[in-house]
Give the backbone structure.
Amino acid sequence: MALTKEQLVNAHRAIGVIDSGVGGLTVVKEISRNLPHESIIYFGDTARMPYGPRSYQEVRGFVFQMIEFLRHQEIKMLVVACNSATAAGLSYYQEACDLPVLGVIEPGVRAALSHSSSGHIGVIGTTGTINSSEYEKALRRQNGDLHIASKACPLFVLLVENNLVETPEARQVAHEYLDPLVRENIDALILGCTHYPLMSELIKEVVGPSVKLINSAKEIAAEIGGILKRDKTANPLSYEKPRYRFFVSGNPSSFEEVGSKLLSRKIKAYQVTLPSTS
Ligand code: DGL
């Protein structure tokens, strides 16, 4: 059935994606792979990252500021591509927005359950995400008999944001965090932070080939596709080149460097100052 003019205008809008820094770009990468006609507007709150050690209330305040910014850019959907922000209160963002708002925890849980045969599942994330137990609760809702081993890995985000993943120090830190999980005989490890796929080679080496790394980005991209289809909001102008725009609250240079490497294209990010929330 043909779209009305209003539906067409909405379908032509971009998907909004937010994170505290570069991590959400791992989700952008999967969206661009799966939904190549969709435009994306990204906001990385690099001036205030990491979110992991902050209180849930503070993180929610930051998220609402990014939502406000993106709403002025006219988006049709919002992806909270940050586990810490999702754990801090996905339902608050969903209640406040009249758009579909997706988080990253449920898709990661689904992917882990489909890959684990032993039911021994590891979860790594920021301190905020692990302390919230949102992964554990979501996993147990699906299967009460799972053996779940969780570990906060706060230094990983800093290694990624500062481009230090390929250093001996990073390897040592990875062993300290991950060796105890390997001893729990896990066969699937949820990368419960969107920054972690950016260091998946190192993580894979440390945990060994018998542990499947779960990156929820692929699952989210599939979910976004399903929602766009259901709501008839997929961009129908498939001959058009999608537009990607990147905004950050801090200095754009390191974001551009890491982002260009990840997305295999040169990206330009614009700095936007967000007001203080206190
Ligand atoms: N990438 C984020 C996450 O998925 C946040 C990292 C941080 O800012 O601490 O949790």
In short: The domain at 105-216 is CATH 3.40.50.1860 (Rossmann fold). The longest helix spans residues 56-72.
